[in-house]
Design a protein that fits this description.
The chain has seven helices and 113 strands.
């Protein structure tokens, strides 16, 4: 269909009419190039008066409300509103982002200011505390933050003559700030007797600690330090909104419409009254002033910008105009000329020239204007008013033709018929009136079919029909001019409409996003010639669709710039431009239409301009024309890695459950066992959902990951070393350029990235705090100093790190779709790319943010899913592998060409010095030249090519390749099936490591007298593994179904396997050939056990809640154990082979007699005394202690007892392997805990001689072999964790002093109750006699809702300037008795070679001179000091750090105070 893809044409912003004067100040400046910078809506504008040309900065997503100019006058900082507002620092020449500052403010950024050398930027937020924040803007790092004031702050400025000093002002306050270290400390300005306390609107700093500020009453207040020393009264007759300092002096502008110039000592030079100027008017209010040389820029409340030349100050030049406050809805286009007409709630109608980019006519009306239309010959202009009337003007001279008021509610839409005979007027009262133009607008008809207000109208080309839309989304048709509704829809089937501005109808079905309201799209206009449709919506977006747009969720190109509602949009008469208007931002945007034929030229001329404003080819629907995803990729995209319980939740969960469990902890518990285990070998590799996670190290070893383990594999010695710092699934791995360090990212609620050394397997850095749910991709920069990571949260956050310092450099939302790969540019450390579902993006660092641009595909390809990516031989060249088997070649952000590389997705790609190597789902490794023009060689992964030295067996030919790496003369290949292969360039393939394929692994059995084990999995394979010394897979057999359990016979010759379809089989343990099979059950076989001794009987447990007993020799079922209420989980035989112990999913421990299966009732005490051939049960008194405090939310899945019956090993749902001393009686036994598996440990088994423990990870598909180290044998290792879920009395309590100190609550004094009880009423609060109102219960200050009596004036608060006051004596601290010793330690130190002692008490730091007994004090703290230390370094003599009790009002970023000695 027509709307299956976005249109190939394009819009480019050409001009913006307007300036944000309302609710903003100080937002208009000259740049170094003598251009003018300001903002309107969400766009920063750089205007050149000489060339009459505009450039646009469009990095914001909402209304810009603040602007600051760098001292060098090239860079600009702008701040916006929004839930998560940010600050952009950008270049006024290139209009490119230099830095983004984010994640601190909320609601909006009200003020900005650069310091003298331009290195730091201060910002003020719109949050409840009006937070003040200082930034190192180049690094995007916040240096300091403090609450600003309880009321609004209107202006802030650095003191340009005193470093680290700032001044802020606002509602009834001015504050003087000092920045010391990372602490911002304010002091309030003292108004004293010199001036009244009032709101300060603007300020400027001068020499000698002087500050000038403009007040609400028009006075200028002059401050010295923090004290008001004089006022310049009557500087303006009303509030002073703007003050600008320059080399010549100061300029001020106010509500009185005057500009005043002052010299450097603030003596008046001249006054310019704009209200009296040629273009002036009554009520003109100045909001911004900039004085530079002999030019002055003035911005007004009503969106005008004036330029004044000082020596011709009576002739200000008006260089920009826009609509004033009030919503802007009316838009009409002249039918024959490049003119646009707009009308607003400001009661003005304006005509704009689209060629000259200027206002050419303006007329003020009596009422707010809501809609407009120009007739076909361009003579008459009709305006619909908010009061229900409409007025017709002559376009030529704006004189009135007629004024008609037939309605009482607003007119929302009006249109002239194509033949010029009629005017249709749509009203808020649901009616449309038809007027005859030639008959002096006599009413001819009325359309009354709608049930809601009229929103849009369109005439048919022959003027015989009218279609309407209303507020309910209904589309109706009427015959003209009478207005009779068309009941038979067949009548209008062939009608051609003269224009298409209706938002409802078959032709525009596709413009509506999913789940949208019928009033979300405000305006539409169709371009029949170009077959495109432009729309305007409530989210500030202008969109371009194909026309007709029949299919729901059609693709579009979108353009941002307007801040909120875009109320109307229209094509110009010749379709050269699109005009859009913003409701609340009062702006008119003019977009240049670039047709498809011109687009290619435009791209190469100005790629920045043409693509900066377009997030092209998007859709609001999941329906799209992209072919179905490859099955593997689809499976991968559906993985969420979300956990019900994360390991980070454990401490909190334990606390919650401790209270409930306290009664059960009184019994003394056994200590943890003396034995410990050490991870020895891991079979497996994470290939099924990861890519490019396999590398050679510097020493030729191989590094990869599986489960929660980073593995370094030595292929010569067949040994492994492990990084065990992770506690959940590792999802990605990257190697440092030097190949000695590795970065790995994991799953987690707050997932971490670990950078660790491959030789020592010790962590060097751990990064966390910015991703959610998991880290899916990481990559080092070419110099190894930086690391990029991508997360699994909904916005797929991309973070750039300085990993050595653990510092986040930049952060951004990566994509709404999953990211598969992140790659740093090897030539430019500030650039990177991400690729994933239907996208590739190229990013550039800008301070604390990243600026991304989507790859532009054009006509060379389709929007495909990218699975792999690498950079080429220059910084602009990049290559990506797609899900369809193509390699895309990119230059900058443009697709240059595509090359067919594989059948199926290209999962991995590796760059060489002179070429590339790729691997795909087709199981082929391909070597390419350096331009992907020629494939030099291919290697197919075949079983026939397997070399004799392989550590296992290849399961299938051409397995899907997930990772490729080159080094040491070999190609290293990782497959989806969990295999790691080394391909020699001459052809032979060596299998090094393998594990189970995708699907949970549950079945595990160890051989009765050999170091081998068997596993069976949902991947439908049965495997035999050698546990020592060769560590390889000895045999494999494919099964018809997946399996969940297996067991060797006591003689080791037979192997029983339970399958998921309810059947089981017995196979020869050496050849794995079938001996016999049975199928008596329908559900999963969950456990299977041979009886001890000769293995005469076989117990087979199923999820059907039965245990079947078979006679092995006769191959018959001889008994059924019934009575379980839930599925069977574990089965054990007693030593005699006569009794079965059974566990169920309902946590029942049951006993059955064999072979008949009769249920037995055995008291728990007696069950202990029975000798069991094996113990894999998780229930009963003997293993009560293995269940954790949080047993309600997690299960212990498996257990196994050593043959000497001393140590019980368990596996649980959180991935922990634990060792308990057996029997584990009493709740919450002590244990040793080991983390290597990621989530469920599904099975654990000791080998026949207890020398090794074998564990299985369900979802991580890994088989881990642990060495059992006896008590006293080993040194202490960091992975050992001796602990318990609950501490009981025998664990030892605290000393009484320590206990008391541990229980101290450092409540803030200001918030705590009084230490000394107080009674009575203070004298100044006592009243001599209650008033009449109070006797009657009337609350003072409240008044009845209606009263005839005039309201009493409220008591005025004054400064009492005339009254004499007694001078306030100042107190100086002389001596402090006391020292804080009761709850502090190590807080007394010698200074100055023992001459002084430094210590603290209360909130005072004390320096006590030993010889004289005098004291000096550090008094900057405002609450109890709790700790003190002295810097011992010779460079920092006498530097002391003290830390205090925190105040609730402080920001969390505060650090302890550091100072020199007082």
């Amino acid at each position: 269909m027509a709307a299956r893809s976005a249109p190939s044409c394009h819009l480019r912003l050409e001009w913006v009419y307007g300036y944000r004067g309302h609710q903003c100040r100080n937002n208009l400046y000259y740049t170094a190039a003598k251009e003018i910078v300001y903002f309107v809506a969400g766009v920063g504008v750089v205007y050149s008066p000489r060339e009459h040309r505009q450039k646009f900065y469009r990095g914001h997503s909402d209304d810009i409300i603040s602007l600051a100019l760098h001292p060098e006058r090239v860079l600009v900082a702008t701040g916006q509103v929004g839930k998560e507002p940010y600050i952009c620092v950008w270049d006024s020449y290139t209009v490119q982002t230099v830095s983004v500052l984010k994640d601190v403010h909320t609601h909006g950024v009200a003020c900005l200011a650069f310091d003298l050398d331009g290195q730091r930027l201060v910002s003020v937020g719109l949050d409840s505390k009006n937070a003040v924040c200082v930034w190192d803007w180049k690094r995007g790092k916040m240096l300091s933050m403090a609450p600003g004031h309880t009321d609004r702050i209107f202006d802030i400025s650095w003191d340009l003559y005193q470093p680290n000093k700032l001044v802020s002002c606002g509602v009834k306050h001015i504050k003087f700030w000092s920045l010391c270290g990372n602490a911002l400390t304010p002091k309030r300005g003292v108004f004293g007797k010199t001036g009244d306390l009032q709101t300060i609107l603007c300020l400027a700093c001068a020499r000698d600690e002087l500050t000038y500020s403009g007040a609400l009453n028009g006075d200028i207040y002059v401050w010295k330090g923090i004290n008001l020393i004089r006022t310049i009264q009557g500087a303006h007759t009303a509030g002073i909104f703007s003050m600008n300092a320059c080399e010549e002096g100061f300029a001020t502008g106010g509500r009185d419409g005057c500009i005043r110039l002052w010299d450097l000592t603030f003596k008046p030079i001249t006054v310019i009254d704009l209200r009296e100027a040629d273009q002036g008017y009554k009520g003109l209010s100045v909001r911004s002033v900039c004085w530079r040389g002999d030019h002055i820029l003035v911005g007004t409340q009503d969106s005008e910008i004036f330029e004044i030349v000082v020596h011709e100050r009576n002739k200000p030049f008006l260089i920009m105009q826009g609509h004033c406050e009030g919503e802007l809805w009316a838009l009409a286009i002249h039918p024959t000329k490049p003119l646009a007409v707009t009308g607003s709630d400001d009661r003005s109608v304006r005509i704009w020239s689209l060629v000259d980019h200027a206002l050419i006519a303006r007329c003020n009306m009596e009422e707010p204007i809501r809609c407009a239309a120009v007739n076909v010959d361009g003579i008459h202009l009709a305006l619909g008013m908010k009061d229900g009337s409409f007025t017709v003007l002559r376009v030529r001279d704006m004189t009135e033709v007629v004024h008609i008021k037939d309605r009482k509610e607003a007119i929302h839409e009006l249109k002239y018929s194509p033949d010029g005979a009629y005017l249709a007027v749509g009203c808020n009262d649901s009616s449309v009136d038809i007027y005859g133009v030639a008959q002096r607008y006599k009413k001819f008809g009325e359309c009354v079919g709608s049930l809601s207000f009229i929103t849009h109208l369109d005439w048919s080309s022959d003027s015989r029909y009218l279609q309407t839309n209303d507020g309910n989304g209904k589309r109706l048709f009427y015959r003209m001019p009478g207005g009779k509704e068309v009941a038979n829809k067949e009548e209008i089937k062939g009608v051609h409409w003269a224009s298409w501005t209706c938002v409802s109808g078959l032709e525009v079905n596709g413009i509506w996003p999913k789940y949208s309201d019928v009033n979300d799209i405000n305006s539409v206009d169709g371009n029949y010639i170009g077959q495109v449709l432009v729309t305007a919506d409530d989210y500030g977006i202008v969109k371009l669709f194909r026309y007709p747009c029949l299919r729901k969720g059609a693709k579009f190109k979108k353009y941002i710039g307007h801040s909120a509602h875009v109320t109307n949009v229209r094509w110009s008469h010749d379709y050269q431009w699109v005009i859009s208007i913003g409701g609340a931002d009062h702006s008119v945007f003019q977009w240049k239409f670039i047709p498809e034929r011109k687009l290619k030229d435009a791209l190469h001329i100005a790629p920045q301009e043409s693509l900066a404003d377009s997030n092209s080819d998007e859709s609001d629907s999941d329906l799209s024309d992209v072919p179905e995803l490859d099955s593997e990729i689809e499976q991968e995209t559906q993985l969420t890695y979300r956990r019900q319980v994360y390991k980070e939740d454990l401490p909190q969960l334990k606390e919650q459950y401790k209270e409930k469990q306290k009664s059960g902890t009184s019994k003394r518990r056994e200590r943890a066992p003396g034995n410990s285990i050490r991870l020895h070998f891991v079979h497996g590799y994470r290939g099924y959902d990861c890519r490019s996670n396999l590398f050679y190290t510097q020493t030729g070893e191989i590094v990869y990951h599986v489960a929660a383990v980073g593995v370094v594999y030595n292929r010569q010695q067949n040994t492994q070393r492990f990084y065990l710092g992770h506690d959940d699934d590792v999802l990605c791995l990257a190697v440092h350029p030097v190949r000695d360090l590795v970065a790995t990212g994991q799953v987690g609620r707050d997932p971490s990235i670990h950078i660790w050394d491959t030789e020592t397997t010790k962590p060097l850095s751990i990064l966390k705090g910015y991703h959610q749910y998991g880290v899916c991709a990481v990559d080092f920069s070419a110099d190894g100093r930086r690391l990029a990571s991508a997360g699994l949260d909904d916005g797929h956050t991309v973070v750039l790190w300085d990993w050595k310092r653990g510092e986040r450099l930049s952060i951004t939302r990566g994509s709404k779709d999953k990211i598969f790969v992140v790659k740093m540019n090897p030539y430019v450390p500030d650039k990177l790319m991400t690729a994933g579902i239907k996208h590739i993006k190229f990013w550039r660092r800008a301070g604390g943010g990243l600026i991304g641009r989507k790859g532009y595909i054009g006509t060379l390809g389709k929007n495909d899913t990218m699975m792999s990516a690498v950079y080429g031989w220059t910084e602009e060249m990049a290559f990506s592998g797609t899900s369809t088997g193509d390699v895309c070649i990119w230059r900058d952000i443009f697709l240059v060409k595509t090359v067919k590389a594989h059948d199926g997705p290209v999962f991995s790609m590796h760059a060489l010095e002179k070429g590339f190597v790729t691997g795909g789902k087709d199981g082929v490794v391909a070597l390419w030249d350096d331009s992907f023009e020629r494939c030099l060689k291919t290697y197919a992964i075949k079983r026939a090519a397997l070399a004799p030295g392989s550590k296992g067996l290849l399961l299938e030919d051409n397995p899907s390749i997930r990772a490729i790496s080159l080094g040491h003369g070999h190609i290293l290949v990782g497959t989806k099936n969990g295999e790691i292969l080394e391909v020699d360039k001459s052809g032979p393939i060596t299998l090094l490591v393998q594990g189970h394929m995708e699907g949970e692994v549950w079945g595990l059995a160890t051989h009765p007298y050999l170091p081998i084990c068997a596993t069976v999995s949902d991947d439908k394979t049965l495997r035999i593994w050698d546990l020592s010394p060769s560590h390889c897979m000895l045999a494999v057999r494919k099964l018809k179904k997946g399996g969940r359990c297996c067991c060797f016979s006591p003689d080791g010759k037979a192997l029983a396997v339970g399958l998921n379809d309810g059947s089981f089989l017995m196979a020869n343990a050496d050849t794995l050939e079938d001996l016999v099979s049975f199928h008596h059950r329908k559900d999963i076989i969950s456990d299977i056990r041979f009886s001890p001794g000769s293995g005469k009987y076989l117990a087979v447990a199923s999820h059907d809640s039965f245990v079947d007993i078979y006679n092995v020799l006769s191959s018959k079922r001889v008994g059924i154990c019934k009575g379980a209420t839930s599925y069977i989980t574990h089965v054990d035989w007693d030593i005699r082979g006569k009794l079965l112990q059974v566990n169920t999913g309902a946590k029942e421990q049951l006993f059955f007699e064999a072979p008949r299966g009769k249920k037995q009732t055995i008291p728990s005490g007696e069950a202990e005394k029975i000798g069991w051939a094996s113990w894999t049960s998780v229930l009963g008194l003997c293993c009560e202690g293995i269940w954790p405090v949080i047993g309600e939310v997690m299960d212990v899945t498996a257990s196994c007892l050593t043959s000497d019956k001393t140590v019980l090993a368990t596996g649980d749902d959180l991935g922990f392997v634990k060792l308990f001393r057996y029997p584990a009686k009493g709740k919450f036994g002590k244990f040793k805990r080991y983390v290597a598996h990621s989530t469920h440990v599904t099975n654990v088994r000791w080998t026949y001689d207890d020398s090794m423990l074998v564990t299985l990870g369900g979802a991580d598909m890994s088989l881990m072999v642990w060495t059992n180290e006896m008590e006293g044998y080993r040194e202490k290792r960091p992975c050992d964790s001796e602990e318990s879920d609950i501490d009981s009395e025998e664990d030892g309590g605290y000393d009484s002093d320590v206990t008391r100190e541990n229980e101290i609550s450092y409540t803030i004094r200001a918030l705590s109750t009084n230490i000394r009880p107080m009674f009575g009423i203070k004298p100044h609060l006592q009243q001599k006699e209650p008033s009449t109102d109070e006797r009657q219960g009337v609350v003072r200050g409240s008044r009845p809702p209606v009263s005839r009596a005039p309201p009493q004036p409220e008591k005025l608060q004054t400064n009492n300037v005339g009254k004499k006051k007694r001078p306030i004596e100042d107190l100086v601290l002389e001596l402090v008795f006391g020292y804080r010793g009761r709850d502090c330690r190590n807080n007394v130190h010698y200074l100055n070679d023992g001459d002084d002692i430094i210590y603290h008490t209360a909130s005072v730091g004390i320096l006590h001179n030993v010889a004289t007994g005098t004291q000096s004090f550090y008094q900057e703290h405002n609450d109890d000091i709790l700790c003190l230390t002295v810097n011992q370094h010779p460079k920092f003599i006498n530097i002391v750090a003290t830390g205090q009790v925190i105040q609730q009002t402080c920001q969390p970023q505060r650090r302890p105070c550091t100072s020199g000695t007082p």
